[in-house]
Amino acid sequence: MTSHSGTNGTSGTTDAGVTPGIAEERWGFDEIYILWISEGMSCDGDTVSLTAADQPSLEDVILGLIPGLPRVNLVNKVLSPSLGGEDFLAPYRAAARGELGAPFILVIEGSVPNQNVIEGDGYWTSFGNDPETGQPETLNTWIDKLAPKAWAVVAAGTCATFGGIHAMAGNPTGCMGLADYLGWDFTAESGLPVVNVPGCPIQPENFMETLIWVLQHAAGSAPPPPLDHMLRPQWLFGKTVHEGCDRGSYYEQGSFATDYNSPKCLVKTGCWGPVVNCNVPKRGWMAGIGGCPNVGGICIGCTMPAFPDAFMPFMDEPPGATLSTLFVKPYGAVIRRLRGFTNDMVNHETKWRHKGRKLTTGYDPYWRA
């Protein structure tokens, strides 16, 4: 591990999305660990989704095939050297003692439950057992031990970023996102706040692109990643679904689908795309293919902090859609008609070439002979 110089920065983001106070930091690590804990309240869907990444793939990062990155040691239960137990937990325990021998990035998958709502014994979710007592060690205990020592902290998926499904109204676990648990003013040793990569599950390239940026920052070859006010990568979540959707022009022209077999705008069938920050329509899901509206699915807002409560019931027309579509329909009808005239005009060869359907250039097609 190489040394570094500079001062840790402060938390928060500017309106432009640039994390202030740490741009001057110059790191230069040649080795780094990624300690991935997926024992939050989740379905492990983010880990599964990550295996589909190919630009770059997780294997490319682990095998050191991307120039300029530190050597990466990924610790994830999918890559466990044994069927769980102390062999797998050894790096986490070493990191908690400050004896890992290299800086580490802590990745949390799944929402963080509120242990305080449990009266008496019990726990919501655990990660291994305490070697002294033999009792399960809660996720909260691990976060408390590891987050203050982590060089960077990354939340993978909407459950980890904002609480997700487990934080919806009425859930007895009291679940929350990682920044809610640590505090939105939390900063890791790098000076970075929690880096939130939402998605239910994460879009694989979105997460890998964010991870690569963080690793390049650790290597000293990139500034800190620009984050928005919800600590999401600004370049990935700075636009709405609607702005990148192939169906967006149908909205402008007042053409709306009434069923899921239509190629038109899906707003009236329940799509929240005009107000949801997500790049899936442009990026696709796997290898640039798929993504909710791209395959006829409505956007249900799974990358948003208010998901799922603010977006239910999912198949109903979103609030405001009735009013907005009412206003856009007469405008869209005029635009469609005018564009139809223009389309017909430019679908014929121009008059200077010839008049009507008959050629006037003197050329006599050979097939008329």
Protein model, in words:
The protein has 369 residues and is of the alpha/beta class. It has helices spanning 45-50, 58-62, 86-97, 139-146, 158-162, 178-182, 204-219, 234-237, 248-252, 280-283, 321-346; strands at residues 31-37, 71-75, 104-109, 126-129, 136-138, 152-156, 195-197. It is elongated.
Determine the number of helices (DSSP H or I, runs of at least 4 residues). Answer: 11
Please count the beta strands (DSSP E, at least 2 residues each): 7
CATH class type of the largest domain: Alpha Beta
Kindly report the name of the CATH homologous superfamily of the largest domain: NADH:ubiquinone oxidoreductase-like, 20kDa subunit
Q: Which radius of gyration do the C-alpha atoms yield?
A: 26 Å
User: What sequence of helices (H) and strands (E) makes up the elements?
Assistant: EHHEHEEEHEHHEHHHHH
Q: Give the N-to-C terminal Cα separation.
A: 83 Å
CATH architecture of the largest domain, by name, is: 3-Layer(aba) Sandwich
Strand composition percent: 5-15%
Largest sheet: 5 strands, parallel
Structural class: alpha/beta
Secondary-structure map with pairings?
Layout: E1 31-37, H1 45-50, H2 58-62, E2 71-75, H3 86-97, E3 104-109, E4 126-129, E5 136-138, H4 139-146, E6 152-156, H5 158-162, H6 178-182, E7 195-197, H7 204-219, H8 234-237, H9 248-252, H10 280-283, H11 321-346
Parallel strand pairs: 1-2, 1-3, 3-6, 6-7
Antiparallel strand pairs: 4-5
